[in-house]
Amino acid sequence: NDGIWAQRGIADAKSDGDHIDLFRFRPHNGAVPSKRKFFGVIAAVFMASAPAWSETSELKSPEVKPPRTLALGLSYLGVQVRYFFLPKWAGEVKYQFGTVNSDGGNTTSQVIGLRGYRFFDTGTAYRLYLGGEASAVNSRDKQDGVFYRATGTALGAFGGFEYTISKHWTLGLGIGPYLFSLKNNVVGGSDASLDFFTNGAVRYYFR
What we know:
Strand content: over 45%
Largest sheet: 8 strands, antiparallel, barrel
Structural class: mainly beta
Shape: elongated
Distance between the termini: 29 Å
Order of helices and strands: HHEEEEEEEE
Number of strands: 8
């Protein structure tokens, strides 16, 4: 369940009992941005994004090619725009945004990325897919009046399926590993994290 996974990510971000130096450097005032907080919010943002695709029942015959089409997707914390440039290949632009507030401060993260998809027909209402993603990550943390900012990249691979609800609507679910590489632009240093994310989204296709 995408909502449960997102809530878990936000819950981890809210936990500031384990203060680990995010980038191994401590600023002069002793304040330390929580590593769990940064990656927890980014995790919640990423778990909101989901791949989705489908064809109408009359296009399931292998000799009939689906039309080039545009689709808009909506997921928890984000939106996506997809375009099919070949019958089984598509590209997508995604934007995710998330904020977590806690007693020590708040953390805000944004993810802007590009995805590529390869789809496989099963002869049913379900379509399988594999794909990859490259995204830019921007995270800002405020603790005790002190601002910290981290930027970096996220690279991922994923697989999943999408179910055709109707001619225009689909429901998709996917999972895959993502490698985050972030650099602190205030105190210096860098850090990396590898995580698996489950994603879900509803999508509308303009046929």
